[in-house]
Design a protein that fits this description.
The complex is a heterodimer of chains A (254) and B (261). In chain A, 54% of the residues are buried. Chain A is built from ten helices and eight strands. Chain A has an eight-stranded parallel β-sheet with strand order 1-2-3-4-5-6-7-8. Chain A is of the alpha/beta class and 254 residues long. Chain B has helices at residues 22-31, 51-61, 81-90, 101-104, 111-123, 150-159, 198-205, 223-231, 236-251; strands at residues 3-9, 36-41, 68-70, 72-73, 97-98, 126-130, 164-168, 183-187, 211-212. Chain B has one domain: Metal-dependent hydrolases (TIM Barrel, Alpha-Beta Barrel). In chain B, the strands form two sheets. In chain B, strands 4-5-6-7-8-9 form a six-stranded parallel β-sheet, sandwiched between helices. A three-stranded parallel β-sheet of chain B has the order 1-2-3. Chain B contains nine helices and nine strands. In chain B, 35% of the residues lie in helices and 14% in strands. Classes of the chains: A alpha/beta (254), B alpha/beta (261). Chain A binds chain B through residues 18-19, 24-25, 27-28, 31-32, 131, 133-135, 138, 171-175, 194-199, 219-223, 225-227, 229-230, and chain B through 15-19, 135-141, 190, 192-197, 216-228, 231.
């Protein structure tokens, strides 16, 4: 079965994720039957300079060139930079397929509006880091991390945007997140993250519909594939999650 | 041949679980070609008098003892654990013990715990300790248990090297810091074979004789752990060690897949 990982990362000069060499990613993908990986290099804590943002994106472009059939790139943006829109254009011209936002601003912050409008204009998705930890200490160092309620708020303002809430298994109360997202049919949810709870994918499919779910790993490779395989869904439904839904998103711009 | 060292039956008060009866666990094992599983009670973790859950577990697993290996739950800070331990072994015929210091408010090196560890070692039983039950980031506000740390186990492996230990939901171990003479297994469901490759790293530093397959059912789905076994870049003999042989030797099970290990 074809698999497109909608949420993955590569090492870059500013960020190493805990494995030695980006070739490991392709080796892992080969073992797990993952055909393509949509990757980014965000700055995960603090506010990056625009130079750091560009260098992160340059490192993604390097990997796209190294593995042109396998690696697809997201353009990471810290929306507060006045150069952000130009950086998105540069990255899309280089072949990137979408925009990655991290935790620098809530997704409904007006500073993000121009990025969302650019994404709508270019017909590309926005993948935004998200979570709803029930532990206050996990909010301390990323107070502007968006949660599902934040996606509801912005999706009502921009229902035509292709917004992807990142890693339902990436930390936090996934049942809370799924219930929130029932209110906005335009928001996609990616299945990535280290949480491989029984029922996670089925509950998301039941409450949101399989057409809103996108397979992802976010570096939890066996867990990411395994939790979709484990879901009590039809093969056709799993195909939607593993690749058809993401392919549909990518085809809008193609 | 696969033996799953990390399964449960019962209810968790903070999230609905499926496939959480002995019968449904065995059906899941059949589906995934898992031959045997060590199983303990979930809700017993939160009973004040945890021993009641041992009686329930013995009753629920009795029809499935060819497949399920029931492990007791005891709390060394609660009165009468010595008699409860005796009953678990002699009356209920349970086969080992799972401890939860993070839920019962003690450290493994506390005097009450040490007494229990020594008594269990005398019995020849294996002690399982989960580093955690659920991901801390999604816990209920009443579930205040903190994850145990690799250092907690390094200490007890050194202090009780002849005790049989299995760490469940293990992560973050540096094999070089573990007492290679100690009798321990670390269960793999939170580690990886690819990318971060912490299973191969632990094979290299601690040795394959210290790893065991576990799924975490019914909290977790078993497919990721099975994929880890499948993707592990090592010999078939080492995979067999992890899949069943190490734990079979520890528990003295008459298990075999008919292949030379």
């Amino acid at each position: 079965m074809v698999k497109i990982d909608c949420h993955m990362h590569v090492n870059g000069r500013h960020h190493q994720w805990g494995w030695s060499g980006n070739d490991c990613i392709i080796e892992a993908a080969d073992k797990l039957g993952i055909d393509q990986l949509c990757v980014s290099i965000p700055t995960v804590r603090g506010m990056p300079t625009i130079d750091e943002v560009r260098e992160n994106n340059d490192d993604v472009i390097t990997m796209m060139k190294r593995y042109p059939e396998r690696i697809l790139g997201y353009c990471y943006i810290c929306p507060g930079h006045r150069e952000s829109i130009d950086e998105i254009s540069r990255c899309l011209d280089a072949g990137m397929i979408g925009i990655k936002l991290y935790n620098q601003y809530k997704i409904w912050d007006p500073v993000v509006y121009s990025v969302i409008e650019k994404a709508i204009e270019e017909q590309v998705p926005i993948l935004e880091h998200a979570g709803y930890p029930t532990t206050p200490e996990d909010w301390v160092d990323q107070p502007n991390m968006s949660h599902a309620g934040d996606f509801v708020r912005i999706a009502r303002l921009y229902p035509q945007a292709m917004l992807i809430e990142a890693h339902i298994g990436g930390g936090g109360d996934w049942e809370w997140a799924i219930k929130q997202l029932r209110a906005v049919p335009s928001v996609y949810l990616d299945t990535s993250g280290s949480v491989i709870d029984e029922g996670l994918v089925e509950v998301a499919a039941r409450e949101l519909g399989v057409n809103r779910l996108l397979f992802g790993t976010d570096m939890t490779m066996e867990g990411g594939v395994g939790k979709v395989l484990a879901a009590n869904l039809t093969e056709s439904e799993k195909e939607q999650i593993f690749w058809r839904n993401m392919k549909g998103i990518l085809d809008r711009r193609a | 041949m696969i033996i799953d060292v990390n399964t449960y039956i019962g209810h968790w008060p903070f999230r609905q679980l499926r496939y959480n009866t002995a019968e449904s666990l065995v059906r899941r094992m059949d589906k995934h070609h898992i031959d045997q599983a060590i199983v303990a009670s979930i809700h017993g973790i939160l009973y004040k008098n945890v021993h009641d859950s041992n009686e329930e577990l013995a009753f629920r697993t009795k029809p499935h003892l060819e497949r399920l290996i029931p492990f007791s739950t005891l709390n060394p800070t609660y009165p009468g654990w010595e008699e409860d331990l005796r009953r678990c072994a002699e009356v209920l015929e349970l086969r080992g013990i799972r401890l939860y210091p993070q839920y019962h408010g003690y450290r493994l090196t506390d005097s009450a715990s040490v007494e229990l560890i020594e008594a269990v070692t005398q019995l020849g039983w294996t002690i399982q300790v989960p580093m955690r039950i659920v991901d801390r980031r999604q816990r209920h506000r009443w579930d205040l248990a903190e994850d145990l740390k690799p250092g907690d186990f390094e200490v007890v492996f050194n202090r009780f090297p002849s005790t049989s230990w299995i760490v469940l939901n293990g992560l973050g171990f540096d094999g070089k810091r573990l007492n290679s003479d100690a009798n321990f297994l670390i269960e793999i469901s939170r580690m990886t074979s690819v990318l971060q490759r912490n299973i191969p790293a632990l094979i290299q530093t601690a040795g394959a004789q210290h790893l065991a397959f576990g799924s975490g059912m019914p909290f977790k789905v078993p497919e990721p752990a099975l994929l880890k076994l499948e993707c592990l870049d090592t010999s078939e003999a080492i995979k067999r060690r992890i899949a069943w042989r190490n734990v079979a030797e520890m528990l003295k099970l008459k298990a075999s897949d008919g292949k030379k290990a």
